[in-house]
Here is the input.
Amino acid sequence: MVSLENRVVIVTGGGRGIGREHALYLAKHGALVVVNDLGGSSDGSGSDKSAAEEVVSEIVAAGGTAVSNTDSVTDFKGAKAIVETAIDAFGDLHAVINNAGILRDHMLVSMTEEDFDLVVAVHLKGTFAVSKFAAEYWRDQHKSGKTVDRAIVNTSSAAGLHGNVGQTNYSAAKAGIAAMTIVHAQELSRYSVRANCIAPIARTRMTLQTPGLSDVMEKAVFDPGNISPLVSYLTADGCPFNGQVFSVYGGSVGIYQGWSIAEEVGTDNSWTMDKFAEEMDKLPRSVKVNSQMAAIVKAATSS
Ligand SMILES: NC(=O)c1ccc[n+]([C@@H]2O[C@H](COP(=O)([O-])OP(=O)(O)OC[C@H]3O[C@@H](n4cnc5c(N)ncnc54)[C@H](O)[C@@H]3O)[C@@H](O)[C@H]2O)c1
Here is the structure.
């Protein structure tokens, strides 16, 4: 059995959308939650402390335990403060759920430097920064003999794993998060830390602004709360998974195979252009992939 009882968990971007659901679900199942949220708009502009604070009030009113933090995950000192908030409030830290995110979609030709930098900062640097300060604490705890199950749950996207038009910045950051998860799983298992990643699709302000998706998202199964049980399972003490990326959308959960070599050609000698051209003709021009977005589009167009 897995357990969330008294697990101290940070949820970044926990004030709205999927992160808010994680925070509520975790608290309902006995976790002590740090709800972090900058509270800006979906393009990353502005800030509003009430986003995090209102979720904390909701948790406390329901009999749970939570504190807020309103630092930006892009700020290195802020990331450290998010981790310290957990340790100061609850005396330990068991898990980090890196979920904060923004969008600045543009085609490559019209994407600005700021669009690229800010999206990469929130997703990729933010995930790195909070995990880094948590890992420093976990390494020290492990060295002092405290071996407890700890966990990182990162948030990637189908856009990062399969690519998506108009999302050079977001897709690159999300692919980086999946890669970072695998590295962190490899590096941190020596300190009893597991790292896994999800690629969700759910009804939030992000997807409601995506052309063609908003109608499908109205289905109950795309409720953002439907993502939180998987994330909570990956966060819980006793979860056996490490270094994996999961798709979670519309009631389905899948485990990704990652980049893997589908077919190979080779030579025993040095390659020549002619030999290479001959061998490359034996490879398929592309390899079929099983993508959650393709499944959603297929279901939407056939219903
Ligand atoms: N909704 C989907 O279908 C979907 C699909 C793939 C991936 N995701 C990912 O799931 C995560 C949650 O997205 P969502 O759909 O709930 O969006 P959302 O906009 O509803 O929530 C994102 C939250 O992150 C917070 N945030 C943004 N920048 C921050 C910063 N610098 N520091 C702290 N908090 C910050 C926002 O204030 C907001 O509350 C994101 O990482 C997103 O990329 C969502």
Notes: Residues 8-255 form a domain with the Rossmann fold fold (CATH 3.40.50.720).
